[in-house]
Amino acid sequence: MGGNGALTLPLPWFLGDSPFTFVVDPLSRWFLAITGLVGLTAAVFSPGYLVHLRRRVAPGFYWAALSLLMASMALVVLAANALTFLVAWELMALSSFALVASDHERHAVRQAALTYLGATRVGTGFLMGGFLWAHQLTGSWTFSAWWIWGPAALGPAVLIFIGLATKAGCWPFHLWLPIAHPAAPAPVSAVMSGVMIKTAIYTMTRLLVLGHLSAPALGPLVLSLGAISAFWGVLFALLQHDLKRLLAYHSVENIGLIMMGLGLSMVAQRLHLPLLSQISLAAALFHTLNHALFKSLLFLGAGAVDARTHVRDVEHLGGLIHRMPWTGACFIVGSAAICALPPLNGFASEWLLYRGLLGLATSAPFMGTRLAGLLLLGWLALVGALALACFAKAFGVVFLGRPRSRAAEQAREATRGMVGAQLLLALACASLGLAAPAVLRFLSQIAGTEQGAPAALAQVWTLPLPLLLLALAITMAVLRAWISVLSHSRPARRYITWECGFGDLGPRTQYTATSFAQPIARMFGALYRYTLNITVGGRDRRHFPESVSVASMYEPYLETRLYAPLLRLFQQAAGTFVMRLQAGSIHQYLLYMALALVFLLWLGYR
Amino acid sequence: MTAFLLAAIHAINLTVVPLLLVGVLRKLKARMQNRLGAPLLQPFYDTAKLLRKGETISQSASWVFIWAPRLCLAIAVLLALLVPWSGAPVLGAHASDFILILYLLALGKFAALLAAMDTGSAFGGLGASREATLSVLVEPTLAIGLGALALSARSTELAVIAASPAVPAVALLVGAALIVAALAELSRMPVDDPTTHLELTMVHEALILENSGRNLALTELAVALRTCIFLGLAVQTLLHAWPRYPELSFSMRYGLGMIGLFGAGAAVAVAEGFLVKLNWRRVPNFIAFGMVLSLLAALVAAARG
A22, exposed or middle or buried, with CB in 10 Å at 0-12, 13-18, 19+? Predict the structure, then answer.
């Protein structure tokens, strides 16, 4: 045992000149709790879900990789030095890669897994660069010994930030996330979206916010990338038809919100506003927990729908609330929580974020910063309204209305384990919103460690949410009683939906997800090319069309105009260069080895 | 001021004012079109009639459809007690936090959107989609505008904002922005035509097309309350441009607030007599006016610090 409650493994367990060291403090406890909670529900959900994948995924392999992933995530948040951290980080990347690839007989899954692997390599590359640089400056691998200030800190801090942002799925490094997360089995998507990407948030908090690797320019950078990420994620989520992909884009949004909190905290530290810094850090950490809960809830819900209908395209679902009532009820709770509707947990953390932005607007010394605070407030409201539209679409099209396919018509409720896992998470979402003061008291241990005055944080929360909920519940109960008295004389009649007198029009005439999103999609058309192809066929097609088909497509400019050319360039360069290097001549290879040996000897001799 | 008086005023605010405002609006509109119009109290008769009638529920509807109007009305009642829209003091200052208010409104909207999609009617989906689009446009305007007010008053609680003097320029700009936002949020002209007969052009009426009887009565009551809250809040903000307004006695403030509220209702009716409904694609341009007003208010508020 070392100082400060650190656990150092004895001598054979060394990495070069540094031991395996672990430390437990309130911050790591917070993330361990998140890991445990989501891991538990994923484990409860998995047996029922694996039946659906029986022939394609080997259960032994699945459970081994999932356990390894959970263990490595726990190690990541416990690691006290950079080398221990990197070992755990890589274990996490590889085990999650194996899980993404577990359904590898499908081509799309293989593609997704490879994309994911590439993204983790890039991220780890940047992270290693940053760690090496910080080691060079301080001569230590221990996180708590990294005291670097001023301009010198910018290089390592930015490299580490890029590495972590890639893992977290922050704009513009988010491209892999909506590809990889939907490809994994649903409980794994829940763990990846709920917890794994949060390990990057943990590291950012540890090193860049609470640590002493402070570069002045980083706060505004994190804040603005977070803001873009939040908007970008929710906007593209609105365009998706695949339920899991839609949820994955919402992870980009929520990571953006969390990073806005972290960035704001760094900005406030720089402006010497300790309480504001605590509020925004608490908002970020609270939202991390909340997002873990409601996002895994939604992913499990999507998994239950997938397992029972084998359909993921929302345009072929509908009416599931009648056939899967429990899953539907849980999904509605998750949707309301992710839209930050009171009194659920998402509201509590977003309220803190709003509070932080208003604090910036009221107490910042410069007019520009104050104005930025107000504008970000509006930005957050925009993101919130888009999320509301997106989940009204997702829930409305999947669970409400009439079934749009036979599969949706014949769906059954999920198994008890699957429902139980969702109920547990829904309950957590509901109770954490009401228990916000207690959560803030715990968070003040983390946020208040460095900056003093921890008691003030708990007093920021002034909303009497339980009281309001009670008032709403009583009003609704009174209304219900009144209605039931009124309906004694004239009971409600069940009849078909109004069809303008044409007779039963069939479920195909319902509003689709594409049409629901179309007005909003058109509004932000500057970011992508949105096209709606309508083809009308038949002999006398003007008046009596025989076939009408509509297809919507969008081409995101970030992908097609920036990343695709970059990747092409890289492939071409690598192709020609690697071809020269690996010409197949044994003499050439021997020369490389000799040169490498000489280089290493020179390094050692220097 | 006694607690009894306050309770009486809130009771009047909840029961008489909303439907009366709707009646005044309709009557004035009819007179402008050279019609006699329905009696002033017609909304009360309509509500009573709807409550007594039976209702028809779609076969594909679930509990969402049945519970959504109750939730919407409960939220509207709660907001009517928490938002200082009439000039009367509110119940519970801490709960009048404007972010909470905005998200409670969003909760009601979420329920309304889901209820519209629950029946599987294409009209419901259409109305829901348009309502969601409108809220995407309106929410930032509301948040920035109210944020600017909060910045000048140094508090996020609307009760505190209402009791403290405002910067006149900020109050005027935000008040105007709130009027624009209210027209969109309440589905009035030029954003939506509440009296049109063609469902394809509607927003709000398409949203509640499947509601009937008691269900419809609850929905209409909630809409009437929301009309009061939005217009009243805009009027109160405009009144705050007069620096001495917060110092006035309570009854003066309430009287002025009511005159302002019915005046705003009359202005909406007159505007609806002259304006036509905008093409749906041009609605964002209209709401952008409100956005610009909010941004100007933010600029002034940030400059003053």
Answer: buried
Q: What is the spatial distance between Cα A117 and Cα A138, in angstroms, rounded to a whole number?
A: 31
Contacting residues of B for A356, CB less than 8 Å apart: none
| Helix (H), strand (E), coil (C) string for A337-400 | HHCCCCCCHHHHHHHHHHHHHHHHHHHCCCHHHHHHHHHHHHHHHHHHHHHHHHHHHHHHHHHC
- Closest-CA distance, B25 to chain A, in angstroms, reads 27
* Torsion on CA atoms A521, A527, A529, A533, rounded to nearest 10: 0
- The span from the CA of A505 to the CA of A492, in Å, is 23
Q: Which residue, B176, B167, B202, B223, is CA-closest to B25?
A: B223
Q: Are A554 and A531 in contact (CB under 8 A)?
A: yes
CB A492 within 8 A of CB B55: yes
Distance from CA of A365 to the nearest CA of B (A): 8
A69 CB-near residues (< 8 Å, 6+ apart): A92, A95, A96, A99, A188, A191, A196
d(CA B28, nearest CA chain A) in Å: 32
Which site among B64, B75, B105, B136 would you substitute to test the A interface, given the most A Cβ atoms closer than 10 Å to its Cβ?
Answer: B136
DSSP for A304-335, please give it: HHHHHH---BGGG---HHHHSHHHHHHHHHHH
Mean pLDDT for the stretch of residues A233-248: 93
Average the pLDDT over A121-128 and give the result. Answer: 94
Q: What is the pLDDT of residues A300-328, one digit of tens each?
A: 999 999 999 988 899 999 899 999 999 99
Q: Do A341 and B110 touch (CB under 8 A)?
A: yes
- Residue A193 gets which letter from DSSP? I
Judge: B302–A402 Cβ closer than 8 Å, yes or no: no
A355 chain-B contacts, CB cut-off 8 A: 99, 156
Report chain B residues whose CB lies below 8 A from the CB of A388: 106, 109-110, 113, 132, 135
In angstroms, the separation between the Cα of residue A88 and the nearest Cα of chain B is 40
- Cα angle B164, B168, B173 (rounded to 5 degrees) comes to 110
Mean pLDDT over the full length of chain B: 90
CA distance B270 to B68: 32
Reported pTM: 0.93
Closest B-chain CA to A479: B70
Q: Which residue has the tokens 């400059």?
A: B303
Lookup: tokens for B150: 């909060």
Q: Which residue has the tokens 């946020």?
A: A447
Q: Specify whether the CB–CB gap between A553 and A533 falls below 8 A.
A: yes
CA–CA distance, A537 with B156 (Å, rounded to integer): 58
What distance in Å separates residue B72's CA from the closest CA in chain A? 9
**How far is Cα B244 from Cα B72, in angstroms, rounded to an integer?**
36
Could you tell me the two tokens for B191?
Answer: 């954003």
Q: Mapping DSSP to helix (H, G, I), strand (E, B) and coil, where does residue A550 land? A: strand
Q: Between chains, do A336 and B110 touch, taking CB under 8 Å as contact?
A: yes
| Whether pLDDT at A3 is above 50 | no
A394 to chain B: closest CA residue: B114
Which candidate from B78, B97, B123 shows the least CB-CB separation from A463? B97
Using a CB-CB distance cutoff of 8 angstroms, which residues of chain A are in contact with residue B302? 361, 367, 370-371, 373-374
Interface residue of B77, B139, B191 to substitute, partner A, most A CBs within 10 Å:
B139
- What are the pLDDT digits (tens) for B80-111? 999 999 888 888 778 889 999 999 999 999 99
Is the four-CA dihedral B175, B176, B178, B182 of positive or negative sign? Answer: positive
- Mean pLDDT estimate for chain A: 89
Dihedral angle of Cα A334, A335, A339, A340, to the nearest 10 degrees: -30
Q: Residue B305 above 80 pLDDT?
A: no
Q: Do A498 and B214 touch (CB under 8 A)?
A: no
